[in-house]
Design brief:
This is YbaN family protein. The structure is a single chain. The protein has 172 residues and is an all-alpha fold. The chain has two domains: 73 residues; 48 residues. It is 69% helix and 0% strand. It has seven helices and no strands.
Length: 172
């Protein structure tokens, strides 16, 4: 079945038809329709991934060295591709929602979370050195990975530059 565009009276008839034909060719060539079975599989996979991330996030809330916010961020991203209702539940949650929204809108990590993350990285590296007593090259590789992670966390904003734009916090 071929889609027919309505005529454009202000364009030359042949020029219009060739432009429409070319646009249809590009559409068919580069934007294929996803089969229903593939769409269901993709949606189910993202939903299961989101549920797993929520489970890890809940576990991270109770286990001292397992982070929780990153798993809720990943769960919200997974649910955005599979279940908007579950995504909305995460975003509206009074405890989990504000950090996820802050990350989405501003790429922000609250100052308290940054301090905990940086101290946790330092303690984790110290424990790694004391317990495993690695060879020099392994200690350097792990140190570089932790330093890169610490720089990334430290350079993220702590919130919006203008506090009046902060819609993510419940402190009003």
């Amino acid at each position: 079945m071929r889609f027919v565009f309505p005529p454009a009276p202000h364009l030359d008839k042949h020029l219009y038809r060739s432009a429409v034909s070319f646009a249809w060719f590009i559409f068919q060539r580069y934007i294929r329709k996803m089969p229903m079975s593939e769409a269901i599989l993709r949606r189910t996979t993202f939903k299961l991934l989101g549920i797993g991330c929520v489970g890890l996030g809940i576990a991270g809330a109770f286990l001292p060295l397992l982070p929780s916010t990153i798993f809720f961020i990943l769960a919200a991203a997974s649910f955005a591709r599979s279940s908007p209702a579950l995504e909305a539940r995460i975003l509206k949650h009074p405890v989990v929602g504000p950090p996820v929204l802050a990350w989405r809108k501003y790429g922000a990590i609250p100052l308290k979370a940054k301090v905990f993350a940086l101290v946790g990285m330092a303690i984790g590296y110290a424990v790694f050195l004391l317990v495993t007593q690695p060879v020099l090259w392994l200690a350097v590789v792990v140190a570089l990975a932790i330093i890169a992670s610490a720089v990334y966390v430290a350079t993220r904003p702590s919130g919006p530059k203008d506090p009046s734009l902060d819609e993510c916090s419940n402190e009003s």
